[in-house]
Amino acid sequence: MSDRWYSQAVVYCLDIDSFADSDGDGCGDIRGLIGRLDYLARLGVTCLWLNPIHPSPGKDDGYDVSDFYNVDPRFGTLGDFAELLHQAANRGIKVIIDLVVNHTSDQHPWFQSARSSPDSPYRDWYVWSETAPSDRNQGMVFPGEQDETWTYDRTAKLWYYHRFYKFQPDLNIKNPEVRAEIKKICAFWLQLGVSGFRMDAVPFIIERTEPGDPTAPMDFGFLSELRQHVQWRRGDAVLLAEANVEPEMLPGYFGDDGGSGNRIHMLFDFMLNAKLVLALARQDTEPIIDALRDTPKLPDGGQWATFLRNHDEIDLSRLTAEQRKDVFEKFGPEERMQLYGRGIRRRLAPMLGNDRKRLELAYSLQFSLRGTPVLRYGEEIGMGDDLSLDGRNAIRTPMQWSQLPNGGFSSADPKDLVRPVISGGEFGFEQVNATRQRHDSSSLLSWFERMIRTLKESPEIGSGSCTHVDVPAPRGILVHRADAATGAMLFVHNLSAKAGEVDLSSLAEDAEFPNDVLADQDYPDPDKLDSIKVGGYGYRWIRMRRTA
Ligand code: NOJ
């Protein structure tokens, strides 16, 4: 098995504010999370990715940081955080945190100082222009909620650059002091005991922005510097980057032209995410096959992080207009389900009509495809969304723990909750909650526990190669395999409602004692690989061989 822990990890992503509230003030906190670590350990999670934990005015769910060296007082203290790291480690769970250093909040003392005077030591920490940049209406990330990327600041009497909302001024990566500060922030948290960072908005961090030049050069060298720094401070620390860019750009994020993986360890596989959703919508395997074929080869140590849902909208911008239309039609037909013209602001269960078979199929696919799986809190119990909330808040409602008031999330008055708990109807906490599913061995939660246990017996998935197997099969059935020094696994997934059959005889010689290790139903043991059946929306994980 690979000694790189992240290739065998199961990552669970959560927002502290909406996970568990221990003191009844309506906002989730670190102590609440500590109280739920046993739940996460039982689920099989081995790494938590915490959405921003720092003090913040909270205008972008914490992605507008006002102090990088502390935790949001609503969540607790640094002492509580150290305790969390200790308690998580006791259960074999690592913790990585969001590192949001493309920008700060406009309330950050650095920005307040920078705007106040040309002599401020922080003036050059941000990106300014004396005149209105000609490209100020280009490159917005949140169309509809943002109409420019340069805003005039009356105090500074200058324009400042902000790739995201105007309350998120970009830091100036060209300034060596900024680079040094980012390294210091990383070192601080590593010293406390985090195992790495989910790096926010990496393509924008390394942008060497100049007013009027929307095609600014990218400073990939900074990623090599940062990797080296992080690795010296903690040898097993990992960088997991958000870089939603064209496939041909991806290799540069992993490493330099020499072919060594000397930059980011793991990148979210945005392309596979969009193609998976398209494949599920069309009930056609072709988009997944395309994604497996078209993604670049990774340098040694490079790893994909796969996901179906995260805390943002599902970004369909890399699909063609026609593909996007098909996905919208199936999974986000109403305007209120869509966001920024490019995405869907729904959880997976409502997207799939709360169809248990399709949910299992989708997550079986995600967890068996190459890379390290990342699971968003609440998906394991099939939580729904609240489309009455603004933008991405629809999918950021509190975790549903039980049938207690507020779904067991908090004892506060419902009007004081950070966001309302989903109540009533098929996704309300009365129906969908962790306690109820714990007591039901046929629940989605129990299925996730079983599936993750099986994943842990299948190191080939995280550490091995992942290839599409081209055998005679109907359009809706995908066959892929994972190979590593430990053995070989084969996976059959039926994206369509119609039961089907695949001819695996060409692989027979390669399989020693083929048997199902996970499947949607009991199938007769394959014994040898020939023609095998798979039910509508069915799946089979077949161990072909074990060598170590
Ligand atoms: C990407 C994060 O995922 C998103 O939630 C946030 O709004 C932007 N970066 C800005 O930090």
Automatic annotation (TrEMBL):
GO terms for biological process: carbohydrate metabolic process. It comes from the Bacteria. SUPFAM superfamilies: (Trans)glycosidases. GO terms for molecular function: transferase activity. Coiled coil: none annotated. Residues 13-396 form the Glycosyl hydrolase family 13 catalytic domain. Gene3D superfamilies: Glycosidases, Oligo-1,6-glucosidase, Domain 2. The keyword NAD does not apply. Keywords: Transferase. Pfam families: Alpha-amylase (PF00128). This is Maltose alpha-D-glucosyltransferase/alpha-amylase. It comes from Actinoplanes italicus.
